[in-house]
Design goal:
The chain is an alpha+beta fold. The chain has seven helices and twelve strands.
Length: 291
């Protein structure tokens, strides 16, 4: 059995211009009138480099189903600027998916742990749990570009047994790559150019998807990324890519069609060690004596 190493690089997967290379990028071209071109240009301009933060606050804390005109304008801008981030996932591309747990195999007088059966490695179509991309009840196929990333994403603890399966893509897919500019940090004291605002907003979008989550998180925090994923799906895309918080070369691929990939094999691993790195964020505060 092997431990988890989040620095392993999956062959055939590499970062390109800050994003993940999954295949041939799709160029988006329109033959439109000047008026239509001007309208789309205006739609593509985010009002602020903080537009995602404002949108997030609205749908998490204020209103969700009947949105403000400002929130709808933000979504229009996202739709108008996502074309330059579209990538193609080729048929036959290999990815990984992990689940904590194992099955048991009888060996003479004792039982041996073995990988989970195939039906446990596929999303539950009738009772999907909540995730960064999907709301509860709507299934989504979450995959990772490396085996180690897939195992790390399920948050195992020392001693946990993790089943990890290889999946093969069965048809060509068009996905929105949110991981472009992931390593950059955008902050402005004044509003920048339209191009700078686009870059800053999409950096915030990728960080929102990449933020590690647990089952104890407030599920309202999933709302902004779920709304964006539904927007991508409505525009005809098959899924999205975002950077994993685990490892330099790990990426996650979320597909709306759970049958877009099929399992090929499954292995079982034991988690032997986990490295925790902490960054001081605030404090300390001091308690005044009551004496």
């Amino acid at each position: 059995m092997s431990g988890i190493c989040v620095t392993t690089v999956c062959a055939g997967v590499k970062a390109v211009n800050g994003g993940i290379f999954l295949g041939t990028a799709i160029g988006v071209h329109w033959a439109v009138s000047k008026d239509e071109s001007d309208r789309r240009r205006r739609m593509a301009e985010f009002e602020s480099w903080r537009s995602f933060q404002k949108f997030r606050r609205e749908v998490v804390r204020e209103r969700r189903y009947i949105r403000t005109r400002e929130a709808d304008s933000f979504l229009d801008a996202v739709a108008a600027t996502c074309g330059q981030r579209v990538k193609t996932v080729p048929t036959g591309w290999i990815a990984w998916r992990a689940q904590i747990g194992c099955d048991w195999r009888q060996e003479e007088d004792y039982e041996m742990p073995c990988p989970l059966p195939v039906e446990r490695m596929e999303p539950l179509t009738d009772r999907a749990s909540e995730g960064r991309v999907n709301p509860k009840g709507i299934p989504c196929l979450y995959l990772a570009t490396t085996r180690e990333t897939a195992m790390s994403e399920v948050r195992p603890w020392v001693g946990s047994l993790v089943s990890v399966a290889q999946f093969r893509i069965v048809r060509e897919l068009r996905v929105v790559d949110c991981s472009v500019n992931h390593s950059e940090f955008a902050f402005y004291f004044a509003e920048g150019s339209p191009e700078e605002r686009v870059k800053a907003v999409w950096t915030d979008i990728d960080r929102a998807y990449a933020q590690p989550t647990t089952r104890t998180d407030d599920t309202a925090d999933y709302t902004p990324t779920q709304v964006l994923a539904e927007l991508f799906r409505d525009r005809g895309f098959d899924g999205l890519v975002y950077k994993s918080a685990f490892g330099e070369n790990g990426y996650n691929v979320a597909l709306f069609d759970v049958e877009a990939a099929v399992p090929l094999n499954c292995e079982l691993f034991e988690t032997k060690g986990i490295e925790c790195v902490f960054d001081h964020m605030d404090g300390p505060y001091f308690v005044r004596s009551q004496e």
